Amino acid sequence: MEGSSKVFTLKLIWRLFSNAGALWVAWTRHYLIRQSSFWDISEKTTRGSWMWKNILKFRPLAATFLKTKIRDGASTRFWFDKWLSIAPLIDLAGELGTRILGINRNTKVSDQLHVPVVSTGHDLVLWNKYETVLKANSSQNAHGIKFECRSRLLNDII
Q1: Most buried in the list 24, 33, 42, 117, measured by CB within 10 Å?
Q2: C-beta of residue 148 within 8 angstroms of C-beta of residue 114
Q3: Which pLDDT value is given to residue 57?
Q4: What does the pLDDT read at residue 71?
Q5: Phi-psi category of 90—alpha, beta or left, where left has phi over 0 and alpha has psi -120 to 50?
Q6: pLDDT band at 129 (very low <50, low <70, confident <90, very high)
Q7: What's the rounded Cα separation, in Å, for the pair 114 and 139?
Q8: pLDDT at 1 over 70
Q9: Three-state DSSP class for 6?
Q10: Are residues 50 and 128 part of one domain?
Q11: What are the angstrom distances between the C-alpha of 65 and each of 85, 96, 156?
Q12: Does residue 129 share a domain with residue 97?
């Protein structure tokens, strides 16, 4: 039973990112996630049921399967979403990185970088099923796109 419980919990996390039209997803985003990032909510939150708290405990496992494909950068969280090939920026820069760079924790990629128009549409969250080894490339992100950074310090991280 434990294995199927993990699968069902991961499926709920996947639905948060892939099924925006679902009633449960809309309710969860409005009442539990609010203006924050799913990745930044404390496990000790008083909002939500025991199931919500269980979902939050599965974030590290779910993070290994999810990545974001940048299109316009407007829906991808700069610090918490995995839009670089190596890790979310908060993992690379640490909690102090937001203060050192002066970039708000809830900012979007499009707010900080000039994103070249590659294709139209919103950013995509992808299930990273088969990718096991991620390689860092200092001049390009996971999609081979060069970004123009608005901060010199940011160039060192990206």
Answers
A1: 33
A2: yes
A3: 95
A4: 79
A5: alpha
A6: very low
A7: 14
A8: no
A9: helix
A10: no
A11: 12, 26, 26
A12: yes
CA 2 to chain centre: 26
State how far the Cα of 153 lies from the Cα of 92, in Å rounded to an integer.
13
The distance in angstroms from the start CA to the end CA of the chain is 41
Residues 50 and 77 in one domain: no
Cβ neighbours, 10 Å, residue 69: 17
Confidence of residue 54 (pLDDT cuts 50, 70, 90): very high
Count of domains for the chain: 2
Residue 7 structural domain: 1-63
Q: Which of 22, 37, 63 is the last residue of a domain?
A: 63
- Pair (40, 74) in one structural domain: no
> Model confidence over 65-103: pLDDT tens digits?
888 888 788 888 889 888 888 888 888 888 888 888 888
Residue predicted with more confidence, 12 or 74: 12
Give the Cα separation of 87 and 103 in Å (integer). Answer: 18
Looking at the structure, tell me whether residues 52 and 118 fall in a common domain: no
Note whether 4 and 30 are same-domain residues: yes
To the question of pTM greater than 0.90 for the whole model, the response is: no
